[in-house]
């Protein structure tokens, strides 16, 4: 029994204190994921600005994001991303306009076809009305 408890405490118990491999802070094993995901100042993070290749510690990320030279670079990256998004939206709008035009054309053609079919059905009805008595008199 002692070995199961020891194994639990050694490898699984969320209440056991462990040392963070990045910052050497003592934390509970159950808090490890939250610590690494939100709190550890020494964990390495990718800059959240799309296109920025910088990786740094959480502690240094605030300095990176507020450094004037980086702010200018980030603004240029964001502007480039916005321009790409705008171009994509314009292309989508043009595609929507094209599809709407094609739908209107298809609707008009369908209306014409329905009208023509109605006329054909009337003519068939008239023809059947004229020919039915003849078939019955032979």
Description:
The protein is mainly alpha-helical. 70% of the residues lie in helices and 9% in strands. It has 4 helices and 4 strands, in the order αββαββαα. The chain has helices at 2-11, 32-39, 58-66, 68-136; strands at 17-19, 26-28, 44-46, 55-57. It has a two-stranded antiparallel ribbon with strand order 1-2. A two-stranded antiparallel ribbon has the order 3-4. A hairpin with an 8-residue loop joins β3 and β4. The protein is elongated. The termini are far apart. The model has no long low-confidence stretch (mean pLDDT 91).
> First CA to last CA: what distance?
107 Å
Taking the sheet with the most strands, its summary is: 2 strands, antiparallel
Number of DSSP helical runs: 4
Global mean pLDDT? 91
Structural class: mainly alpha
Strand content: 5-15%
Instruction: Please state the CA-atom Rg, rounded to the nearest Å.
Output: 37 Å
Can you tell me the residue ranges where pLDDT is under 50 for at least 5 consecutive residues?
none
The total strand number stands at 4
Backbone shape: elongated
Helix/strand order, N-terminal first: HEEHEEHH
Roughly how much helix do the residues carry, as a percent range? Answer: 55-70%
Order of neighbouring strands in the sheet with most strands: 1-2
């Amino acid at each position: 029994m002692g070995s199961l408890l020891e194994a639990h405490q050694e490898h699984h118990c969320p209440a056991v204190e462990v040392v963070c491999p990045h910052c050497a802070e003592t934390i509970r094993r159950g808090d490890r994921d939250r610590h690494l995901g939100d709190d550890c100042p020494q964990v390495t993070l990718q800059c959240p600005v799309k296109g920025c290749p910088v990786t740094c510690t959480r502690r240094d990320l605030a300095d990176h994001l507020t450094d004037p030279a980086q702010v200018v670079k980030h603004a240029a990256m964001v502007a480039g991303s916005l321009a790409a998004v705008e171009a994509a939206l314009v292309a989508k709008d043009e595609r929507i306009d094209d599809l709407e035009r094609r739908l209107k054309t298809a609707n008009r053609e369908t209306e014409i076809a329905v009208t023509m079919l109605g006329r054909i059905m009337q003519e068939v009805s008239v023809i059947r009305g004229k020919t039915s008595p003849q078939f019955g008199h032979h």
